[in-house]
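ARCHIVE CARD
Drawer: 12
Card no.: 0347
Subject: one protein chain, sequence and derived structure
Cross-reference: see card 0346
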Amino acid sequence: MKCTDLLIQEHKAILRCVEVLEQMSRRIERGDDVSNEDVQTLLEHLRTFADDHHQTMEESALFPELRRTANVQEGPLRQMLFEHDQERSLVEALDDAFHTKRGAEFVLFTNRFVEIIRNHVYKEDHILFDIIERSISTEQDEKITNEFAKFPIKPSFFVDLQRLEQKYLRKVA
C-alpha cells in the first residue's frame, strides 16, 4: 500500500470526526444538551489521532522525504504546515470555549475548524498527493510507509468514533 493510500484512509476517519463535531455544534447552537464527556472524547481524538498521529506522520516522515525530492517546491509544504498549526490552535480554542461555556464561540470555532479541515484534506488528497505520486520513487514510498508504521492507532479510537457517530449522526452500526 502506498503512503498516500494510508493517509487518504486516515483523512476519511478525520472527516468522520468533523461530522460529529458539526452535529455537536448544531446542538449547542440550538441550546440542546451535549455530553461533556462526548465533547472531551472527540476533542481528545482530534488531538491524538488527527494531530499527534496523522499530522505528526506527515510532518516527520512524509514532508522531510518530499523536501529531499528536487521536483517538490517548498511552498505547498509550508502551506500544509501552516494549516496544521491553524487546526491545532482551533482545537485548543474549541476546548476552551466548551469548558468556559461560551457556546457561540464553540459554534464559531467549529465552523472555522470544519472549513479548514475539509479544505485541507481536499488539497492533500487532490493536489499534494498527485505531486507525491509524480515525485517520489517506489523506494521512497516504502521508506515513508515504514516510518508511518511507527505511529500506531489506539484501537479505542474507532470504537469511540463509532459510538459518537451513532449518537450524534444516528448512524446504525
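Annotation on reverse: The chain has one domain: 3-168. The helical segments are 3-30, 36-67, 74-99, 103-135, 138-148, 155-168.
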